[in-house]
Specification:
Blueprint (H helix, E strand, L loop, with lengths): L2 H4 L14 H7 L1 H6 L20 H8 L2 E4 L2 E4 L13 H9 L3 H7 L2 H18 L12 H10 L1 H4 L6 H23 L7 H13 L7 H15 L11 H20 L6 H17 L19 H9 L8 E2 L4 E6 L2 E6 L18 E5 L2 E5 L10 H7 L7 E2 L13 H5 L3 E6 L2 E8 L3 H4 L1 E9 L5 E10 L6 E10 L4 E4 L5 E5 L5 E6 L5 E7 L7 E13 L3 E10 L2 H6 L6 H9 L1
Antiparallel strand pairs: 1-2, 3-4, 4-5, 5-6, 6-7, 7-13, 8-13, 9-10, 10-11, 11-12, 12-19, 13-18, 14-15, 15-16, 16-19, 17-18
Helix pairs in contact: 4-6, 7-10, 8-10, 8-11, 10-11, 11-12, 13-14, 13-15
Length: 573
Amino acid sequence: MNNMAAGFNAKTLPLPSRRSLSDRLFSAPLYQASLRSRTPRKLRSTHVDVLPGRGEKADSLFQGHFEFAGFGAHVSNAEPWFAPNMPLHWHQELHRFSWIRDFAANDTDAAKRHARTLLISWVKNFGQYTPYVWDKDVLPRRLINWIRQATFLMTSNDGDFNYQFLKTLREQFKHLARLRRLTRDKTDMVEVDLALYLCACVFPDTKDQQKSSLRHLLEDIDLVILADGCHLSRNPSKHLDLLADLVALKHDFMNLQQEVPQGLMGAIDRLAPVVRFFQHGDGSLALFNGATLPEKGDCDHLLAISDAAGRPPHRCPLGGFERLKAGRSLLILETGEGGRPKNIPYHAGIGSFEFSFGQEKLIVNCGSHPDSKSAWGKALMSTAAHSTLSIRDLNAQFPAPDDAEQLAELNISTHEEGGSLWLDFDNPGFLQAAKVRHSRKLFLESSGISLRGEDTVSFEGPADRITEFELRFHLHPDLSVSKNMNGNKLLIRTQNGSGWQFLSSLSEMSLEESVYCGQAGELRKSQQIVLNGKIHGQETLALKWAFALLGESEAETDTAPASEAEATAAATD
């Protein structure tokens, strides 16, 4: 009996205590016995991992340093599972075993021996049901990773490691199949059904389950990919992860010389152009709805091997995003068009945008935290953590997909003339909570060196009410910012030495602290531009602003501070 199930092990897992009814059922001796069956001597097929591992990370793991989600633990033995003072999401990532691909990238005998030692240690401590470790959000990815790295892990002879590995693989497979049947909310079951399908492929006596497992998987895929190619979560990272899984599955069919299902090919063809839609010039992804930055080169690598040649669309009407591209500039805006289902957590970033020039990001959202229920997780999901309008500590609300009245408030129009792009957007996010109507107009000049905006705010409540609001522009942490003496102009310098000027129709603007959490668990200090507005009663206030790329001499000298009139004129031209 393992330590978490019965508490008999002297070692104590540093995980939150949990003893639900299902935990007691699954850890009972009778249930554990029901998972046992004849252990196969080998796997029937081999499967590939299309994401490249990092050999340098394997070296760090070999030395006992396990870093996940911004937290690192150093262990002097081969049992990182008992590292103290690590958050739950660190342990969950550890038990998913995605780091095995880093050992496989090293591909030395020493790497194989060390990976096997770690896995045998895991089997010893977690070979029977353990809360969190055997949960539906951890177990499927572990099975997928083990199967895709089985060729690297297994020995050439029928040794004890192979037996232990295949035995626990089989038992976890049986448990996951039961979990699927017990799951009520089947909103996104792709990872679960992919793990079940791969298990059905590799075991000699489960060939008859392949067809039904594949059918379930293809049905799941069709449910989570919207007609415009966006992932149901509107999270670009989950979008990329799904593309990686499906490209790997496509390669499995090709390697086995089997026909690739049309549903799988169609899903890849829909996903790939939208990955390009969310890509900035540096190859990374925009940070919307919990997204994090991928490993450098992963996006381009997956797109190259996907063989999907579709160009990025200009808009994703069901996903609720618009994309403006002119010259070297790129702007991605979240409109919320199509609505958002209530059963999926989204960041309150309606109306927010990210803006980059070439390989350098200028305006960003703050990112996400791996624990969405933590204080940091909630803060990063808030409207104030996004480059859009915010009102006090309120969070903007997306319309529901089936609310025709709310969706009618989302007026979006774009047009192009001579290469220049206009976008008009009505943001209903604060209509219900604060009776505030917000519209955002954006103009991206054809060369990409000038972005202008106008945000109009009006109040539809009592005439004696004063409404205060903020327009926030979160800056990427690699930028340096200085304010001129009059306080009405900002000079923004990028790492490559280019300069941008920010102007607004206000006589003053604030430069405040912000954070950037591009990687899971990462917290980088940054800054944000804040334009403060106040409306009295039912009046309407329009704030105009502009980002303009400076010439070399202007960026170096930042001469003659602009007067208030000059700043206003530049922002409103």
